[in-house]
Structures are given as structure tokens and as C-alpha cells.
Amino acid sequence: MARKSEINFEKVTAADILQVVPITRKTLWLWQKKYQFFPDPIKVAHPGGKGIVGYYPAWVRERCKRVYSLQKSGYTISMIQEILKKEEEEKSAKKVLIVDDEKKFTQLMKKYFVQNGYQVEVAYDGLNAGLKAAEFKPAIILLDINLPGLNGLEVCRHIKSNPRTQFTRVLVISASLQYTEEEVSKAGGDGFVKKPINFQEVLEKCGQLLDSGNNAILDK
């Protein structure tokens, strides 16, 4: 059974998907294998104690709606696969994961980035940061250092050592005076900013990271 922390992101069941996409459970399973555009569901105990229920990330519902629309328009399997691949590449360029245990600050930053055309997910601790980085596949992670559980620098090391996330840019954020840009760089961070921060400046730094190479280090 999956740990609770593994399903702390927005999720849907197969039944939720089938409510908005007129297909059968068998078709959903076939799409999963044929197009390989979404993962197996995470299976956990039913909240009501009635067996097992599988949860998909919420974006799976929208992707299924997209596949159904393309099929209805007459696109072939190979054409749909190519379209989905191209769309994913375009979207991934503006994905941001915000990791900070200050929930009000995190939600304000999320709102700001969404208003500026980014797809945004949030995590409030180091463990969920790693899980969401692998699942959401952001282009940039805005990572606070002082997190409950895993320290932000340790999270950064894990992200940079994982083949699935090693090319993700990490902009480290901290209000503490004990950390330096050199420590952040040694942990694999691509930039370092001190709190309090200016959202516009952080947005600009993210744009610079997207335009730069994988090892870019930004000035404060």
C-alpha cells in the first residue's frame, strides 16, 4: 500500500475520468498501454474500508479528454502519439514546482506564476518535493532550504542525482543567513535568492534559467 505522502497531490479515480470522457474502463486501460502518457494508478485502501481504490494524477483526466477529442477528429494512433509528445514538450518548458512550508507565501507565489503563464504544483516538505518532481516533471523547482523532514539542500542533491530529474533547474530560496551561494552550488543548485523576495525578480531569474544551460548559476 502506498504511503499517505505519496498521494498528497491532486488526484482522480478511473470513475472520475469516465464521468467526463465517454469511454469504458477497458478503453482507459488500453489507452494507458497504447499511448503510455500516464502512469499506473497508485492503489490505496478505500476510504470507506471497501477494498482498494486506484488514484491517478488529476492531469490524466484532461489528457484523456484530449485523446478522445483527437480520436473523434480522425487522428491515427501514431499521429496522436506525436501530438501528445509535442504538447508535453511545450508544456514542460513552463512548469514550476514551489517547495516551501510557509503555505500562505507558497500560494501567493503560485498565483503569481500562474498569472504569468506557468503550470504550478506545490509541496510543503522535502519528501513530497521529490515525489512531485518525479511525477510533475517541472522545468524549475523553487526550493526553500528550511523544510520539515529533509533539508532543502539534501532535496536538491537527490533531485540532481536522480536520472529522471537531474536536468531540472533548482532555484534555492532561504531566509536564513547561515547558508551561502557556494553551499547551494555544491548541492547542485542553479541559483540562490534570499528572502524576503520580489516575485518579479524571481520570475525573471526563472526565465534566465530556462534560457541558460543546465549548469547556470545566477547572481544574487
Distance between the termini: 44 Å
Task: Summarize the amount of helix as a percent range.
Answer: 40-55%
Say which CATH homologous superfamily of the largest domain is assigned. Response regulator
CATH topology-level fold name of the largest domain? Rossmann fold
Q: Strand-residue fraction?
A: 15-25%
DSSP helical segment count: 9
What structural class do you assign from the helix and strand content? alpha/beta
- What would you report as the Rg, rounded to the nearest angstrom? 19 Å
Number of domains: 2
Give the CA-based shape. Answer: globular
| H and E string | EHHEEHHEHEHEHEHEH
Mean pLDDT: 83
Key structural traits:
single chain; 220 residues; alpha/beta; Multidrug-efflux Transporter Regulator, Chain: A, Domain 2; Rossmann fold; 2 domains; five-stranded parallel β-sheet; three-stranded antiparallel β-sheet; 17% strand; globular; disordered N terminus
Structure commentary:
With 220 residues, the protein is of the alpha/beta class. The protein folds into 2 domains: 85 residues, Multidrug-efflux Transporter Regulator, Chain: A, Domain 2, CATH 1.10.1660; 119 residues, Rossmann fold, CATH 3.40.50. It is 46% helix and 17% strand. The chain contains 9 helices and 8 strands. Helix 8 links the parallel strand 7 and strand 8. The protein starts with 10 loop residues before the first strand and ends in a 9-residue tail after the last helix.
